[in-house]
Amino acid sequence: MLKPVPQPEYLDPQVAVSLARLPKKEAYLVAKQTFNGSAIDFKLKVETDLSRCRQLWQKFSPHKSLFDTWDFRHAFYLGYHEQPYFMTIIFKDEPVACLPLWYEDDNREFRWFGSWWQEDNTFFALHESLVPIMLKVLPKPTLLNAISCSPELANRFKFALDDPKYILHLTGLASADDFLTRFSKKRRYNLKRDRHKILDQNPKTIINRFADLKHLARLSMDRFHAKGEDSDWEDPGRVKTFEAVISEAKEYQPRMITTEINGQVAGVDLVAIYKGTYYLLKCGYDIANFPGLGNYTNLMQINDALRLGDIQKMDFLEISYGWKDKLLEEVPLYQYHHVA
User: Fold this and answer.
1) Residues 219-231: what's their mean pLDDT?
2) Run of H or E residues at 70
3) What's residue 2's pLDDT?
4) Are 157 and 146 in contact (CB under 8 A)?
5) pLDDT by residue (tens digit) across 84-127?
6) Are 227 and 120 part of one and the same domain?
7) What's the Cα-to-Cα distance from 284 to each of 198, 219, 238, rounded to whole Å?
8) Is 296 a domain residue?
9) Into how many domains does the chain fold?
10) Could you report the per-residue pLDDT of 193-212, keeping only the tens digit for each?
11) The CATH number of the domain where 292 resides is what?
C-alpha cells in the first residue's frame, strides 16, 4: 500500500496548476525566449501513476547510462514500493520537462525515483533553461544526489560536490597486465602478488549462476559484521531490489561472476552491461579465508570485459572504499539539497 505524500501548499497531484505566478521571472523569460510563448502557457503537474511515470521516463531519459533505464529504476520500485512523484512541466499541453522523484517515508524526504543508489542523474528537460524552474518548484525537503553535469552548470546552480564515481576506459588495453603497467613497481608487485595467491589455489570461474545472489549477500554481510558494521543486505527491500535487477532486465544485460575455490563459493560479483559499459554493481568476498581475492577479482573482471569485445568502459560506481581512487579515474558528481 502506497503511503500518502505531503504536498506543497500550491500543488495537488493529478491537477495541473499555472506556473505564471511561481518563479515569475524565469517562467516569463523561458516561455518567451525558448518557446516563443507566454508564461501562462506553463503548467505544473505531478504524476503518481506508475504507468504514466514510465511513459514520461521513456520520453525524457537520455538512455546513455544504466541508471537511465526504466528497468533498472523499476527494480528499486519493486523492492521498496515508494510513491512515485514525477513533477512535470507542461507547455501548451505538452510535457517539456520532468523531475522523476519518489517520496521516502522513512527519511521523510523526496529523492530520485529509485533512491539514493542511483547515479548519473540528470534533469529531464527539452531545454537547459527549464532547470531553474524545476529547482524552484521542488517540494521540501528534496535531496537530489549523484547529479551528472558539467562543473560550470554545477557552479551556476550552486550544487555541492557529492562522492565521485570511478571509471576505467579500456581503449588501448589488451589485458589486465596492460592496466598494471600504469602503476609504480611496488603497486604492480602487490596487485600481482594477490592475483598469484588466488591462482595458486586453482579458482573456478562460473558465469551467470544467478542463484548465487544469496551467496553474494551472505558473504557481504559476513564481511561487514566482522568489522562491526551493518550491511545493506539486512534490508529485505535491498534483496528484493537486486533479485528484480536480475529478473526484470530487458534494456541491459545482467552478468554474475562466481569464484569457487576447493568447491567453496569464495566470491560473487553482480555486473550489468549497457551500451558498451560494464557496471560493477555488487560483490561479496570471503577475504578472511581467501586474502587477495578482491584484487584478483578486479583484474579478472578487466579481462572479462575485454573478452566480451564490445565494452569501452568499466564503471566502478561511487565511493572509493579506500582503493578506487588509487587505481581508477575519478569523475565528479554533484548534489542539491532543497530543505525547509
Assistant:
1) 93
2) helix 70-80
3) 53
4) no
5) 999 999 988 899 999 999 999 999 999 999 999 999 999 999 98
6) no
7) 16, 5, 14
8) yes
9) 2
10) 999 999 999 999 999 999 99
11) 3.40.630.30
Backbone angles phi, psi at 278, to 5 degrees: -105, 105
Question: Strand 109-112 relative to strand 142-147: parallel, antiparallel, unpaired?
Answer: parallel
Residue-number span of the structural domain to which 198 is assigned: 172-311
Asked if 66 and 142 sit in the same domain, the reply is: yes
Contact 26, 58 (CB under 8 A): no
Strand partners, 247: none
CB distance 136 to 163 below 8 Å = no
Q: What does the alpha-carbon distance between residue 317 and residue 72 come to, in Å, rounded to a whole number?
A: 15
pLDDT tens-digit profile of 148-184? 999 999 999 999 999 999 999 999 999 999 999 999 9
CA angle 110, 112, 118 (to 5 degrees): 140
Do 143 and 211 share a domain, yes or no?
no
Angle (nearest 5°) at CA 307 between 305 and 309 = 85
Tens of pLDDT, residue by residue over 281-290, are 999 999 999 9
Q: Which of 139, 163, 187 is the last residue of a domain?
A: 163
Q: Tens digits of per-residue pLDDT, 235-292?
A: 999 999 999 999 999 999 999 999 999 999 999 999 999 999 999 999 999 999 999 9
Of 156, 300, 250, the closest CA to residue 147 belongs to 156
Residue 269 burial by Cβ neighbours in a 10 Å radius (0-12, 13-18, 19+): buried
DSSP 21: T
The DSSP line for 97-115 is: EEEEEEEETTTTEEEETT-
In a shared domain, residues 75 and 144: yes
